[in-house]
Automatic annotation (TrEMBL):
Gene3D superfamilies: 3.40.630.30. This is GNAT family N-acetyltransferase. Pfam families: Acetyltransf_3 (PF13302). Residues 1-156 form the N-acetyltransferase domain.
């Protein structure tokens, strides 16, 4: 299930954002203590922030937002997809299913809207996920000390 974040997700957000495994290709985790202190009662509450719930518990976070400050002109201002899942939920297809549903929701809301995605090219699980979701390469660039992959997913052309 995809839904807005709630108060009961706070512990899972602390888990997700402090996990070294989750942040291997994301510049490192935040400290658990700092998160416990600083996360709001309902974390990540903004339009396009989607909690992925399985059997009543949060397993991941899907993010759809405007890449207003993106450093690459090809991505600036476009809808941008991000995803983070708890390691115990990896390898079962949940990220593919959740992201495909989020993209379907976006294309219903904003027909024809392209979506961009940036990931480290060394992040093979994320690269496989991007390909499965229909993203194709725009360019690679160096940032944050690593090669980054910028992909785009163009909305399918529909005839009336
Ligand atoms: C990126 C990330 C979400 C990918 O997670 P994932 O578990 O590999 O992706 P999925 O949930 O779609 O699972 C796909 C895997 O499940 C397997 N799988 C098992 N059962 C499946 C099923 N019923 N349907 C689909 N896939 C299934 C697939 O074969 C695939 O494994 P493979 O990659 O070894 O071939 C995860 O690695 C993550 O959260 N990483 C940390 C955060 C991060 O780096 N995010 C990127 C920011 S841009």
């Amino acid at each position: 299930m995809l839904r807005a974040p709630e108060r009961r997700d706070r512990a899972a957000f602390v888990e997700l954002l402090s996990s070294p495994e989750v942040h291997t290709y994301l510049g490192g985790p935040r400290s658990r203590d700092e998160l416990q202190r600083e996360l709001p009662e309902v974390p990540e509450q903004w339009p396009g922030s989607l909690v992925v719930e399985l059997d009543g518990a949060m397993i991941g976070h899907v993010l759809l937002r405007r890449a207003t400050g993106h450093r690459r002109p090809a991505a600036a201002g476009k809808a941008d997809l991000g995803y983070l899942f708890l390691p115990q939920a990896w390898g079962s297809g949940y990220a593919t299913e959740a992201c495909a549903a989020a993209l379907g929701w976006l294309s219903d809301a904003l027909p024809g809207e392209p979506v961009v995605l940036t990931t480290q090219s060394a992040n093979t699980a994320s690269m496989r996920l991007a390909a499965k979701l229909g993203f194709t390469e725009v360019e690679r660039f160096e940032a944050w000390g690593a090669e980054q992959w910028l992909g785009v997913r163009r909305a399918p052309v529909t005839s009336a």
